[in-house]
Amino acid sequence: MNSLAEKDRPIVQLLLSTGTCPRCILRFCCVGSQMLYRHPHKDLMKDLQEFLKSSQEKEDTVCLDVADPPCKRIRLEHGEEGADDLNHNGAIPSADNGNSATESSAVKVCNVCLGILQEFCEADFVKKVCQKVNSADYQFTSFVFSVSLPPQLSVRERAAWLGVKQQMRNLGLPLAKDDIVQLKEAYKWIIHPQLSEELGVPADGKSLFEVSVVFAHPETEEECHFLATACPDCFKPAKNKQSVFTRMAVIKALEKIKEEDFLKHFPCPPSSPKNLCDALEIQCNNGAVFVAGRYNKYSRNLPQTPWIIDGERKLESSVEELISEHLMAEFKADSFNFSSSGREDVDVRTLGNGRPFAIELVNPRRIRFTAEEMRRLQQAINDSSDKIQVRDLQLVTRSAIGRMKEGEEEKTKTYSALIWTDKAIQREDIEFLNDIKELKLEQKTPLRVLHRRPLAVRRRLIHTMRCEYIDQHHFRLRLKTQAGTYIKEFVHGDFGRTKPNIGSLLNRTADILELDVESVDVDWPPTLAD
User: What is its main location (predicted)?
Assistant: First the structure.
């Protein structure tokens, strides 16, 4: 085995004798050849046996020529008197020779990886993973593979590594590195080519389609619990975690605990378990897809989002639901998140070019749509209800959605309001409003939204106003305003919380009967040809 050197011989012999699998031995010897890890388990075991045999023959020859002093390594192998006995309290057992070590570990579950680099690298498991992927019916052109490992693996790795360090120290040999090839990395080296061949697409670290496997090993799950006593600061309860013994918490504790304290609580080398790991879950997840467009709302009895108070639904539908139900069905997504450039009240229509919106579709099975398919989807939404219409429906990127929100308060919006006054008005009574430009308002949070918005004073601008006289008690007011202006409150004053207001400007009581949004001046998403 060309990747191993003579300095690795005591490591190989020790780990084989204590029940470590060939691939984990390669990891502990810092072998970086990906191809070597992909060799069959039996072949690797045979290669390690040959490596030990050839190394032993060379050493026997050297020892015959040099009688004094005797080889320290040989003395250790034959049970040197006074050698550190770490067994059970961190002891390193002696190994008779490479053959017995190989034979004894051939059928065992690895005492370090708990079988992950044994059974779970075989073709049968790869096929099981691919069957799960194919049955889920996802569209994807590449994949990224992730694996979740039991936290106690880090404890076992530490115990095995301390055994290696002690062995090398006893032999008076230097240890080049204080690290090993990570188990996850080695596992991916082995599994990636097999998954890629079976799925027919390449592995790509930047892919949005993730295949993940979650491993667990109930037999040894309590092995890291002693760390909570030794390093209590590392284990803090978290809302979204079922156990405090997360992999990161265990690693943090292992970095803090002293070597001698570790050896008091955990056997070195670790014992071989009876059972393999369990592959608890094989999951697939596609990265979110984002759809954007503009909507018109023609109903005065339709909220933008579901209107639910104290668990009771007030109205049967919403803009969000009328659009998303079609997208969810076509993209076969698990869930969605709706966002828009502002929002209108339930009794306010949105006319003109409509209001920009975006929907994030979470874990979609289908991700590829042609422009024609998107047009048909838009038409299906429009045909399903006379309360809304959608235009410019298109796929966008996550980063593009930021354009809808950026500078939102600097954007302008145009409204049309039907206003009533208690005192009779003549045409000339309202004409002065046409001449007012850049009117500065101070608006306290309206009473009607105070339950969900913090109390604050917002400064807003009315850029322009234009009046249309209707009769002695009614006129229509068209306004261009800074985004975020509360129009209803600007008309009636909200008990003096908005100053100035139409009532104070006209010196009479005014109220709003109807309000329409006529334009939302956000140049996004791009306009599409019909």
Answer: cytoplasm
The angle, 0 to 180 degrees and rounded to 10, between the axes of the packed helices 183-199 and 123-135 is 60
Q: Which residue has the tokens 């038409």?
A: 379
Q: How many CA atoms lie within 13 A of 252 on its CB side?
A: 13
Environment class of residue 495 by beta-carbon count within 10 Å: exposed (0-12), middle (13-18) or buried (19+)?
A: exposed
pLDDT > 90: what percent of the chain?
75
Handedness of CA 506, 508, 512, 513 (dihedral sign): negative
Higher per-residue confidence, 219 vs 236 = 219
Phi and psi, residue 63, nearest 5°: -70, -30
CATH no. for residue 337? Answer: 3.30.70.2510
The gap from C-alpha 309 to its chain's centroid, in whole angstroms, comes to 31
Residue 269: both structure tokens together: 């080398």
Q: How far apart are CA 486 and CA 83, in angstroms?
A: 83
Domain CATH for 460: 3.30.70.3190
Contact, 84 vs 92, CB < 8 A? Answer: yes
Residues 515, 347: contact at Cβ < 8 Å?
A: yes
pLDDT at 402: 85
Q: Over the stretch 177-201, which tens digit does the pLDDT of each residue have?
A: 667 899 999 999 999 999 999 999 9
Residues 280, 329 within the same domain: no
Please give the C-alpha separations between residue 247 and each of 5, 33, 244, 261, 353, in angstroms, as whole numbers.
33, 26, 9, 20, 52
Residue appearing with tokens 């009315």: 462
> Looking at the structure, do residues 379 and 510 belong to the same domain, yes or no?
no
pLDDT of 410 strictly over 90: no
Instruction: Identify the domain containing residue 402 by its residue range.
Output: 288-409
Number of domains comprising the chain = 3
SS3 192: helix
Rounding to the nearest 10 degrees, give the CA dihedral for residues 306, 402, 520, 505.
90
Q: Can you spell out the DSSP letters for 69-103?
A: SPPHHHHHHTT-TT----TTTT-----S-HHHHHH
74 in a domain, yes or no? no
Phi, psi for 290 (deg, rounded to 5): -120, 130
Give the whole-angstrom CA distance, residue 140 versus residue 365: 9
Shared-domain flag, residues 405 and 420:
no
Among 204, 278, 334, 345, the one annotated catalytic:
345
Residues 228-236: contacts with CB under 8 Å, at least 24 apart: 228/253, 230/257, 230/261, 230/262, 230/265, 231/256, 231/257
Looking at the fold, whether 353 and 423 belong to one and the same domain comes out as no
pLDDT at 378 over 50: yes
- Strands of 149-226, DSSP E: 209-216
| Tokens describing residue 132 | 């799960």
Q: Among 348, 376, 409, give the residue marking a domain's end.
A: 409
Q: Is residue 297 part of a domain?
A: yes
Residue 386 annotated in active site: no
More confident residue, 352 or 76: 352
